[in-house]
């Protein structure tokens, strides 16, 4: 391992479970966790609250640079207001997905994301963690799941929170978001060349977490290549 602070990246499509998995992997290792998607959702929420035109790339990026954000265990605060539940609402997530291709916004958030790299280590989840934000990460995971399985998970989450959910609508929305994420010209959702693909379609959260911890253990036990 290099002398830098180690990073495990977990990228994948929406509702693949990467956020929950990242939290649990970080907890098991005693590391910091970065939910990069929350920064985009927070920007989207600020855009909605301030009535900014989402098509105004410069204005959106400016909001991102001035976000008054605090992350606490299980909590997210924006300008002194608890917004952990609000930023998980579908309309906020959809706007975040539409804002994500904005190159000015991505540049504005890049430094903030990299600042989360703190000892003893970082688990970062998102869509371009292993390809753009932390290309030197020691372990890169690309977490996938069948789109219907993901839609069913999201429906279950919403129903548990007392929010009505239509599976077919969620499925159509998820497919549209997948298309936006994978086809955008700036930092598209794609597995890094050195990423390990983990399919969680038929795995429990615990099984998915364990598979990643096993990969990390395997990485630690692998002797470095000569000259590295």
UniProtKB/TrEMBL annotation:
GO CC field: cytosol
Keyword Kinase: yes
This protein's UniProt keywords: ATP-binding, Cytoplasm, Kinase, Nucleotide-binding, Transferase
Example of a GO biological process term: pyrimidine nucleotide metabolic process
Class of this enzyme: transferase
Binding positions (ATP): 12-20
Main location: cytoplasm
Domain Cytidylate kinase, residue spans: 8-215
HAMAP family registered for this protein in UniProt: Cytidyl_kinase_type1
Name of protein: Cytidylate kinase
Biological source species: Zwartia hollandica
């Amino acid at each position: 391992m290099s002398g830098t602070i180690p990073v495990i990246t977990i990228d994948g499509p929406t509702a693949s479970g990467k956020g929950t998995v990242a939290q649990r992997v970080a907890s098991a290792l005693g590391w910091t966790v970065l939910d990069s998607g929350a920064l985009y959702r927070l920007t989207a929420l600020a855009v909605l609250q301030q009535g900014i035109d989402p098509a105004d790339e410069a204005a959106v990026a400016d909001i991102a640079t001035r976000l008054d954000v605090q992350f606490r265990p299980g909590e997210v605060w924006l300008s002194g207001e608890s917004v952990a539940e609000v930023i998980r609402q579908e309309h906020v997530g959809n706007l975040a997905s539409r804002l994500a291709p904005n190159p000015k916004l991505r540049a504005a958030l890049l430094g903030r994301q990299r600042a989360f790299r703190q000892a003893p280590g970082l688990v970062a989840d998102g869509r371009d963690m292993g390809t753009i934000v932390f290309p030197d990460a020691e372990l890169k995971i690309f977490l996938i799941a069948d789109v219907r399985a993901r839609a069913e998970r999201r429906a279950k989450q919403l129903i548990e929170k007392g929010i009505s959910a239509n599976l077919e609508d969620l499925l159509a929305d998820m497919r549209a978001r997948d298309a936006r994420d994978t086809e955008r010209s700036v930092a598209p959702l794609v597995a890094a060349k050195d990423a390990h693909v983990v399919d969680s379609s038929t795995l429990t959260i615990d099984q998915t977490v364990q598979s990643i911890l096993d990969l990390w253990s395997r990485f630690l036990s692998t002797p470095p290549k000569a000259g590295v």
